[in-house]
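re: the backbone from monday

yeah here it is again, tokenized this time
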């Protein structure tokens, strides 16, 4: 994977803190079809995640995560670009105690989010 390319795309996107799940700290970005540069960066990052990301289990499903070396793991909510409306990122070094309780509440006692592995 070309880390520099991924980081250049990420720099063009606006990420916001996801306040709805404070015990699973993560951020998200949404598509911006009104801003051609951000839309292009979003689509290219989406495809990098699909082509270069590593598969991990998340909420009982296999999900592709991209770790470009900036301390974050990135993932898309779908594998189909036309359906993609947002992408997420989570600190790649988040500890088990940071999010395990919330994950168990949402997914059951045997599940764990990617930050907790």
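seq for it, each position gets an aa:
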């Amino acid at each position: 994977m070309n880390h520099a390319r991924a980081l250049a795309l990420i720099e063009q996107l606006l990420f916001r803190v996801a306040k709805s799940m404070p015990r699973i700290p993560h951020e998200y970005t949404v598509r911006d079809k009104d801003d051609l540069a951000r839309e292009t960066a979003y689509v290219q990052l989406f495809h990098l995640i699909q082509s270069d990301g590593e598969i991990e289990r998340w909420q009982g499903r296999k999900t592709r995560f991209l770790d470009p070396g900036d301390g974050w793991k990135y993932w898309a909510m779908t594998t189909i670009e036309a359906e993609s409306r947002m992408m997420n990122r989570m600190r790649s070094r988040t500890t088990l105690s940071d999010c395990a309780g919330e994950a168990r509440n949402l997914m059951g006692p045997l599940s764990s989010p990617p930050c907790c592995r």
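DSSP finds three helices and six strands in the chain. Residues 3-106 form one domain.
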